[in-house]
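Hi V.,

You were right to ask for the full record rather than a summary. Here it is.
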Amino acid sequence: MKLQKILSRFQRLHPKEIDLSLDRIKSLCKKLGNPQDKIRAFSVVGTNGKHSTINAIFSILKEAKVQCNIYTSPHIQKINERFIFNNQELNDDELADLFEKVEEINNDEPITFFEILSACFFYKAAQFSNNINLIEAGLFHRFDATNVLKNNLASVVCSISEDHLDWLPKKQQTIKQIVFEKTSTLLNSNIIVSKQNSEETTKCIEKTISKNLSNKFFFNKDFSYSNKENGFFYYEDKFGGLRLPLPNILGEFQLENISTAIATLRMTNIKIKDDDIKKGITKIKSIGRLQEINSGKLKELVKYNRLLLDGSHNEDGARVLNEYLQTLNCKKHVILGMMANKNHEKYISYFKDISSLTTIDIPNQPNAMSGKKLKEKFQNFPNIQYKESLETAIKSVPLEKNDLLIITGSLYLSGEFLNLN
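Predicted structure:
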């Protein structure tokens, strides 16, 4: 209760949920003693794969007995997920104490919710000067609250695609502008660029960072992987090759994220052993991102059928999700809920050979698209229906033996499912 009261006060500090500017965060950090200048960090930017890449780096570093602090967003079930220090998530009391200290120093000055959360992370992180910080950028990065570091160990550029276009002027809603927003202000250190979804995007990144003095490492040019049979894949860079076990998370795209994580650690000379990599990638924690659900109240409704939960919500997320679905020889049923500002038509266009589609509302999200309106948008989709809630939707799906049910379209929907389950 105490934590929720503080968060409510945070949300009232600024009239806008998002107000892209660095002035407020810099002012508060100055009052806090500029803690962001006292940490060692990997900055992770991009549209898709940021969270998975961070979790892969974290899992490898834990095997190497390296202490980490982690800042990610959004959270899936509870805000504590965003604040990890010394490899442990802060509990409610610890988080409330941290928030209260920063709140007092801020002294009711206007600042957005995400900005004050970011300042809280930096303030706490500075207490662990030897730890490695894994910091996920929020919206775009150029004017994002995480973009106040003066130096870092490396910038990691994950897959960039079209998303959050409503935050750009109409004439600038292009992949070129998105790449500029995400990469034009990267620090001079090391830049590791993950596999991109098109050659155009890769060329845009190359051009945007061409004058950046960092050491640059690109997927396929400086590191790569190949998926082999018999339960392993092969990673290679200038230091040599590694025969690695398949990870504990689903999807070919996760091999891209894991390869980027390995490259990040090896290219920046972080002291890890090959065994740390081999063990770490089989222990990656992933919530709401192509997660197989094996138990719980909602899982019981589908009995022996496979149930997958995936928070993908943009075109590129739909693409990689459906690349995985196409590898499965079974009937697929989809339950879909999405936010209003997404490109719903592009997202659903990647779903092929779907046996049924059920649209639903996302509770407690005023910016969500209603399930009824989603159904209207997809009225030409075969076997489509609308249901108000997850439970009624799951019960209504005509599952047969060996069929797959996947719940997707939003991280907020993933959080709702996990809380109910």
